[in-house]
Design a protein that fits this description.
4 helices; seven-stranded mixed beta sheet; alpha+beta
Length: 166
């Protein structure tokens, strides 16, 4: 975390790009359902959200998405039905760090019936239909709209966003 003297010497909040989000969905009965996990500790204790994690030194955003899905859900994204990188990022302000966060967003499709194996960072998981009211933050609802627009229909745009196994 940034020290107070460092914060006083710079003008305004910092911009950080060291967090990724991973949205997990399945198709059931012609509809998409999205996985949310309940945060068991700070920051964001008691809130429902997608997988979120910090990039480690020397790690790419794609590698972070793979690692965080494995650590937080027990999910190997390369064995899933699909793995994509959404084109847009949605900045948000984090007061505790006086930072504007810019998070690359990833999408993983799993088979209907798949269930996560949660780590100690999370106390529960649920599947939601994906309506905007099911998501705490506007950027999360925007991601669901992007999944509906770009991933669910398939086609050229979906393939252009696909992350290859690696």
């Amino acid at each position: 975390m940034t020290g107070m003297s460092e914060m006083a010497s710079r003008p305004g909040p910092t911009v950080r790009t060291d967090v990724v989000d991973v949205y997990v969905f399945c198709r059931e009965g012609g509809r998409a359902r999205y996985l949310q996990i309940l945060r068991a500790r700070e920051p964001m204790l008691g809130t429902w959200h997608p997988v979120m994690g910090h990039v480690e030194a020397g790690e790419s955003a794609i590698a972070t998405a793979r690692r965080e899905a494995r650590e937080e859900l027990g999910l190997d994204v390369d064995s899933a039905l699909g793995f994509w990188a959404l084109e847009e990022t949605f900045p948000f302000y984090l007061p505790a760090r006086d930072a504007v966060m810019m998070s690359p967003r990833f999408v993983v499709e799993v088979r209907s019936g798949w269930e996560p194996v949660l780590n100690a960072e999370h106390s529960d998981a649920r599947w939601v239909a994906g309506e905007e009211s099911d998501w705490l933050w506007p950027g999360q609802a925007s991601c669901v709209r992007a999944i509906v627009r770009d991933i669910l229909p398939g086609g050229a745009r979906c393939e252009a966003l696909r992350v290859r196994a690696g």
